[in-house]
Amino acid sequence: MAIPAFGLGTFRLKGEQVISSVKMALALNYRAIDSAQIYDNEADIGQAIAESGVARSELYITTKIWTENLSKEKLIPSLKQSLQKLRTDYVDLTLIHWPSPGNAVSVEESMQALLEAKNQGLTREIGISNFTIPLMEQAIAAVGADNIATNQIELSPYLQNRRVVDWARAHGIHITSYMTLAYGKALQDAQIQWIAQKHAATPAQVILCWAMAQGYSVIPSSTKRENLASNLLAANLHLDADDMQAIAALDSHQRLVDPDGLAPNWD
Ligand SMILES: NC(=O)c1ccc[n+]([C@@H]2O[C@H](COP(=O)([O-])OP(=O)(O)OC[C@H]3O[C@@H](n4cnc5c(N)ncnc54)[C@H](OP(=O)(O)O)[C@@H]3O)[C@@H](O)[C@H]2O)c1
């Protein structure tokens, strides 16, 4: 089962805001939704899905296990709570959101608990997020690369994460790009705007197309119908080699998500 190339992000969105975003997105034919226990919006998303009338079988729902729930005692019960909030019997993909701070719970323990959740039918696929190369090595040692559907990492024109991408690819791990738009910052970039003008496209479409053209899945978030609709059309855009090269040259290793006490030693 391949991870959808395009999905909806929901970080920071709660209550009426996330309900409205998810309902608009589903009406526009989005079918993949990215959530997380720590976003505190799983119940809102469950409500939005129920009210949308879209069949569960058409959807690809992702959640992520928070760091407090990584032990073998806590992981499965916490995932069952997520399923209850999301009003579903299973999620399509469950990720370890961040490696355990200070390695309080080993990668081996959390990955094996996640694999057990998969074996119990609570999640169709499992994966990791914010994992560095040494952490990916540990995850593969624990459950095998075949069981790791993706590594979801910050990846934008300003943080292209080449080492992690190349290593993951060499080991058969798919990349999901989060904050592909650099939380809106990259939309102001003169080079991106020039490429957008050239193709009569939006800057967001250019960036999303650039990421998908490299085989990454993307999960941009938006609270606005117009942006949700135009972002989805990024799949129809074709960038040429000059465009791809110009965006490749924007890499400045600028990381936006680097939380104290949580972030690993980045590659
Ligand atoms: N695994 C992790 O640790 C992790 C960390 C961060 C994020 N994520 C996931 O990745 C998703 C995406 O990241 P993100 O939401 O932080 O940032 P993002 O998708 O890079 O950017 C979202 C921002 O861009 C704006 N935007 C979207 N489309 C636009 C358009 N066409 N024109 C102008 N502005 C536009 C949105 O504003 P409007 O609402 O005004 O459109 C919003 O402010 C998250 O929602 C979350 O699901 C995962």
Summarize the structure.
By secondary structure, this protein is α/β, with parallel strands linked by helices. The chain has 10 helices and 7 strands. It has a single domain (8-248), classed as Alpha-Beta Barrel (TIM Barrel).
In helices, the fraction of residues equals 25-40%
Rg over C-alpha atoms, rounded to the nearest angstrom: 18 Å
Strand numbers in spatial order across the main sheet: 1-2-3-4-5-6-7
Overall number of strands: 7
> Structural class, from secondary structure content?
alpha/beta
CATH architecture: Alpha-Beta Barrel
Q: How much is the average pLDDT?
A: 98
Global morphology = globular
Please tally the helical runs, counting DSSP H or I stretches of 4 or more residues: 10
CATH fold category name: TIM Barrel
Q: What is the CATH class name?
A: Alpha Beta
| Ligand names | NADP nicotinamide-adenine-dinucleotide phosphate
| Major sheet size, sense and barrel closure | 7 strands, parallel
Low-confidence stretches: none
